């Protein structure tokens, strides 16, 4: 079985799902290398389904559909890394809980169904905190709809890849991160919406450490790839 991240890492299991928790801020390239190694091991049947949970050092990641006008200017303040997931450009960094499920999908592959399960996980966490997150037709992720004529606000993002029947990349839930990072890009290619955090919606600081056990609580039910009812 492959090793987990080398330092500051905890590993546990929920049912048959292995959870790797990384402490501190993880450079994106390090986490991406780990994802690919875990993905290869899952494809080979060497490990069980695994979810990596962490906070990144500040970074912009550009999915395959990102256009030049959506990228930050030269003074981005953080590296911009092109990645092999779907979707467009987004930001990861301190105060945002990022999860990378490395899961074998059952055949026939239902990628849209998997996206909906990931969204549901974040929705359930939001509801645990008393935040009314919703889905928005035609847009992935978790949203706040203010109902006052203002723009929708994105609270959680989904961006993934499925290769050889095993998932990579995953989800990002804004807890108490600095929203100013999003001002430098057209986040997820959506120009008519904003971004938000659990802290902003609740009017108090909600840290990644506070949110983490709630995410873990929902992982087995929603990401263990049991048939949806």
Q: Could you spell the SSE succession in H and E letters?
A: EEHEEEEEHEEEEEHH
**Rg on CA atoms, Å:** 17 Å
| Helix-residue proportion | 10-25%
Low-confidence spans: 1-7
Content-based structural category: alpha+beta
Stated plainly, the CATH topology is called: BirA Bifunctional Protein, domain 2
Give the overall silhouette: globular
Number of domains: 1
Describe the largest sheet.
Answer: 9 strands, mixed
CATH H-tier superfamily:
Bira Bifunctional Protein, Domain 2
Number of helices: 4
Function: Catalyzes the transfer of endogenously produced octanoic acid from octanoyl-acyl-carrier-protein onto the lipoyl domains of lipoate-dependent enzymes. Lipoyl-ACP can also act as a substrate although octanoyl-ACP is likely to be the physiological substrate.
EC number: 2.3.1.181
Protein name: Octanoyltransferase
Enzyme class: transferase
């Amino acid at each position: 079985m492959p090793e987990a991240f080398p330092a500051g890492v905890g590993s546990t299991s929920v049912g048959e799902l292995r959870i790797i928790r990384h402490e501190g801020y993880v450079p994106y390239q390090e986490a991406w290398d780990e994802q690919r190694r875990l993905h290869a091991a899952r494809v080979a049947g060497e490990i069980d389904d695994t979810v990596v949970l962490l906070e990144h050092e500040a970074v912009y990641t550009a999915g395959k559909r990102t256009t030049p006008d959506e990228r930050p200017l030269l003074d981005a303040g953080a590296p911009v890394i092109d990645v092999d997931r779907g979707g467009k450009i987004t930001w990861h960094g301190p105060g945002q809980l990022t999860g990378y499920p490395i899961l074998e999908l059952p055949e026939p592959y239902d990628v849209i169904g998997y996206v909906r399960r990931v969204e549901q996980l974040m929705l359930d966490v939001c509801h645990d905190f008393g935040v009314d997150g919703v889905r928005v037709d035609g847009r992935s992720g978790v949203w706040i709809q203010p109902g006052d004529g203002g723009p929708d606000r994105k609270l959680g993002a989904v961006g993934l890849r499925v290769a050889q029947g095993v998932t990579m990349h995953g989800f990002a839930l804004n807890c108490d991160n600095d929203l100013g990072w999003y001002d430098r890009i057209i986040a997820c290619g959506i120009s008519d919406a904003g971004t938000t955090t659990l802290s902003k919606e609740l009017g108090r600081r909600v840290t990644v450490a506070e949110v983490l056990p709630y995410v873990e609580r929902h992982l087995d039910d929603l990401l263990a790839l049991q048939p949806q009812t």
